[in-house]
Specification:
single chain, alpha/beta, 8-stranded mixed β-sheet, 12% strand
Amino acid sequence: MRTKRRQVSKLVKNSWWLMRAYKFIFLALLFLLSGCGLLVSGAPSPEERRVATDGLKPPRVGLVLGGGAARGFAHVGVIRILEREKIPIDLIVGTSVGSLVGAIYADKKNSLELEWAAFSLEERDVFDYTFISPNQGFVRGERLEEFVLKKVSAREISQLKVPFAAVAADIQNGEVVVLSSGSVARAVRASSSIPGVFIPFRHQGKLLVDGGVLNNVPVDVARQLGADVVIAVNLGDGKKPTPVNNIFDTLVQTLNLMAMQTTEAKLAGADVVIRPQVSQVGLIDFSKKKELLLAGMQAAEEAMPRIREKVFGLQASSVGP
């Protein structure tokens, strides 16, 4: 009986050591496989691929949103696709309506919240007409500033979640003005003050009008602010006739045509240019929001292979094999 107990005890002890040995071998194999890169837990996401290795930084991606009045709803569609495809946005530079959409996204950093905010924008939120002193413009611009104050929680540009700059033009000395500090709402108002329509806005000691007068798709500004890869969105392709029904359409379209003459040269400095087909929509037509959103989405999807190549391919070439 005593001998049998000893045999059972020895068997249990041997089994315990055998289990420990198997566990040790399994952990050792697991370590070796993971160290050799043979253990696959799923393909890395674009965001994971973008993590810098060997101490090198990933490329800084700048998104440039051009002017285009009501056609700016297409910007919302572009951003939705960039976010869906996990394309990083490290910097936003916008002119006119591009500054409005860019400021909201820089504050929310969420395309769904951007869509809700942008789609609540109506003509009455932009055009607060005045005929008291129409010698400089018919629209004050105060209502647009109030809209930004309601939709953007950050009061100062430095408080936004994504670095941001709005581009305006100094109408007195003809210089491009980059607004990358100070009030968010006033920067957007200044950048969106279409000359002849809006009264020029005095801000930071300058008399400012819509940035589209001098730089409608400010690719160069994004470069100056440190963007390694620039994705530009141009709303003024001019390939189809634009509806012109009243004096405001005439003034806005005149500015748009002037901007087109200089925009292509600026776009040459971008890595990727997204061109939503929106010229069939009037520049102050706020009834085609969904159509414009879809146009932006389609254009971004078509540009996605090029975007991936520039954003993730640049990092791959910089860190080596």
